[in-house]
What we know:
Blueprint: E1 13-18, E2 24-29, H1 35-38, E3 42-50, H2 53-57, E4 63-68, E5 71-72, H3 74-84, E6 98-102, E7 120-124, E8 131-134, E9 137-144, E10 152-159, E11 169-177, E12 183-191
Antiparallel strand pairs: 1-2, 3-4, 3-12, 5-11, 6-7, 6-10, 8-9, 9-12, 10-11
Amino acid sequence: MSNEQPTTEKKPVKRAIILPDGSMRNVEYPDSPSAEEVLKIHTSFKLEKFKSKKDLDENRPYEVVEGKGNVMLNEGANLLWTLICGGGGNPYNNANSRVGVGDSNAGEDPTQTGLLGGNQLYKSMDSGYPQYGSARQAVFRSTFVETEANWAWREWSVDNGATYLVNINRKVQDLGTKPNTEIWRFTVTLKF
């Protein structure tokens, strides 16, 4: 007589997922995945560098830097859930949201609460931003004029205003040194 327990074979679980284009597809998972495995926030950014106001007005950047990835900060994740569930808090809207840039190259960590650099500037949203409510995303954009943030850009973040200072994320990447003769426009897209 054996003391071994009978094993039951786990059958794949079928789940419908929504693709970035909005279509649905059934996917088989060998085991039931956790929410963290199914839901992810994808971040992309674009930095457009303009030599002059005229180039900005004509949308002619001399350089475009694009990238992906960041670390979602605990404080931002907690506030997003609070806002989603109807709790109080400062929303990430045009009146409050800001893109921040700084000069620290210290690695990202979810426990951080914003930019770490000795030089940093959070800039309010451009008119019409953030854009949200379609394509499963929110798009934040700020334009830094000639007299702003003239140092080495090594980190960036999105927060919800000078009063609350709750940062959604932080990314470390060398984006170049902004001279006081240029205008740089920074766009961040957060997407589920």
